[in-house]
Amino acid sequence: MTMRWEDMKHIAPSVPTLKNHTATLVGSRIFVFGGYDGRRNHNDLHIFDCDTLSWETYTDPRSSNQDSTPPSLSAAFPASRNGHTATLAHNSIYILGGWLGSGPHAANDLHILHVNSMRWESPITTGTPPGPCNMHTTDYLPNINGLLVFRGGDGKEYLNDLHLFDLPTRHWSRPTTHGTPPSPRANHSSAVLDHRLFVFGGWNGTHRLNDLHMLDTTTWQWTSISPSSEGSMMLPFPRAGMTFVAVRRRFFLFGGYGSSPNHPFPAKCFSDLHVLDTDQTSTHWTPVVPSGHSTCTPPAYLSSTGCSSDLASDANPNDARPFDSPHAPRDPRVVTVEGVGPSRRAGHTCTVVGRRLFIFGGSHHNEYLNDMHVLDTDPSPQAVVALAAPMDFNSALRPYANSPTFSDISFIVEGHVVYAHKLVLSMASDHFRAMFSAGFREASAAAIVIPNMSRGGFEAMMAYVYSGHVVGEMGWEDLLELLVAADQYMLDHLKQVCERQLQLALDKDNVGFLMEAAERANASQLMAVCRHFVRNYADKESTRHANDDTP
Predict the structure, then answer these.
(1) 382, part of any domain
(2) Which of 18, 189, 337, 353 has the fewest CB neighbours in a 10 Å radius?
(3) What CATH number has the domain bearing residue 480?
(4) What are the residues whose beta carbons fall under 8 Å from the beta carbon of 363, sequence distance 6 or more?
């Protein structure tokens, strides 16, 4: 598995440096609210358009004379804060708690931004709310149509109480759970997969954590999920202030603040990336390693033997380059990443947009950040022509393609004669070399009948053999025939050329034909491209239908 950091240097950092802010996806836009810049809290609303890669900002008119806020947003901006949560449900963003910077406790207020009308609301609720919340987590669970709050700190203590906000009734309650909940903590991370809530890591006032817990909201059963006993399992260092998100039934952990068991002081920020595969009872952590030409920081992890590998202190200085050759051997258990990733940080946000992760802001010691980084967790494979053309004297041979001059072999294709030369064909292809060797009936034949291939396809293959490239424009159906022929006649360079051109012609109407031909021709690059297209086209259609069904 290979992932790729995309180049986002062209995005203008037109928003403040922020940490402990929130970033909430609505459609194709990320709504960033609040945060701390090292001097003060904010309550501006910054919206990042993932399609145009541009920012727009709405400011509280009570704190700014700028005419940058529409009338619908002119009232009831929440107070400036950091360490709050902002959770999307039914096209509204629910903002809860946070640290206001005054008083002994965190905030306990709830605000709603109705995105369709862009209006703020301070709702009237019933039941007993969680109380002061800071560095907590809030997640929307569709199966219960409610928000689950796992409280972190209240400004004085570290907590582990669970609260449910029922969206239709706007009623707060305390669910009765079974099993052992996570220990008290703050600045942890959480993510939802189906009907399950996962809680990872955090800070308990004494030390940082790297444990993982799961709450099944159909049974309200807490389970502590133990790491896999496999030798390849590597557990991330204990940390707080990291991000932990679910993408396509996997979890991705990035960054945070912590230390290694071998070097507990001083603590530092990480820029490592880990992938978690989990079932009901066990987990398998995979540290994401930089490819041989990536500038991403290697991961910091604990091996299953308990030894630490603090690779995060020695970043690879090499520049990012294009993909490896697809023919390079790869361990299927290894996850690699290419490109230039984010620097060390904690208090950042990570927003899932389809298969991509948008990481924004955070801080590293006294440096506060406002950069945006995008990780493509499933980048499109790039069919490449890595092999050299089979001969260096193609320009001299080109006039002899299908020419009777010096021809010592001919082929009958659909009743038509195609002239060729044994020496040229033998140099280009092991298949032809074997065909003309002693012991094969074709060795003594003056003309060889070629069945199951069109005259145009065979002549195109012969033109390639004599010229070193595909001559003329070809439709995808003709390219498929040429691809299969290239595999049959062991013309590997031609096969790669066909794969590359077929990738450019791929669409939803022909992907089935291309996959069938790729299987027949053992075209691994084309098959990978087709599977990626099917995977992501299905995701796109699913998202479109989900948006159509949104209330």
Answers:
(1) no
(2) 353
(3) 3.30.710.10
(4) 17, 19, 38, 269, 345, 346, 347, 369
- Looking at the structure, tell me whether residues 296 and 343 fall in a common domain: yes
Structure tokens at 32: 């960033």
Provide DSSP, 32-88.
EE--B-SS-BB--EEEEETTTTEEEEE--TTT---S-S-GGGSS-PPPPBBS-EEEE
Are the beta carbons of 120 and 111 closer than 8 angstroms?
A: yes
Neighbours of 71 (CB within 10 A): 9
272-330, pLDDT tens digit by residue? 999 998 865 667 888 888 876 445 556 666 554 444 454 333 332 222 223 333 333 34
- Looking at residue 394, the DSSP 8-state letter turns out to be H
Same domain as 398, residue 342: no
CA Rg value for the chain: 30
Expressed as residue numbers, the domain containing 415 is 394-537
The CATH number linked to 10 is 2.120.10.80
Flag whether 419 is in a domain. Answer: yes
Q: At 525, is the secondary structure helix, strand, or coil?
A: helix
Pick the last residue of a domain from 350, 376, 402.
376
For residues 459 and 411, the answer to whether their CB atoms sit within 8 Å is no
Flag whether 383 is in a domain.
no
Interior angle at CA 173, CA 169 and CA 177, nearest 5: 130
Contacts of 122 (CB under 8 A, 6+ apart): 76, 109, 110, 111, 112
User: Within this chain, do residues 356 and 421 fall inside the same structural domain, yes or no?
Assistant: no
Looking at the fold, whether 58 and 206 belong to one and the same domain comes out as yes
Q: Name, in order, each residue with C-beta under 8 angstroms of 99's C-beta and a sequence gap of 6 or more.
A: 20, 41, 81, 82, 83, 84, 106, 107, 134, 155
> pTM for this one?
0.81
Tokens of 290: 């930089």
Q: How many domains does the chain have?
A: 2
End-to-end CA distance of the chain: 37
Q: In this structure, are 363 and 409 located in the same domain?
A: no
**Nearest CA among 16, 46, 43 for reference residue 32:** 46
The verdict on 435 and 299 lying in the same domain is no
Is residue 13 over pLDDT 60? Answer: yes
Q: CB–CB of 185/152 below 8 Å?
A: yes
CB 205 within 8 A of CB 231: no
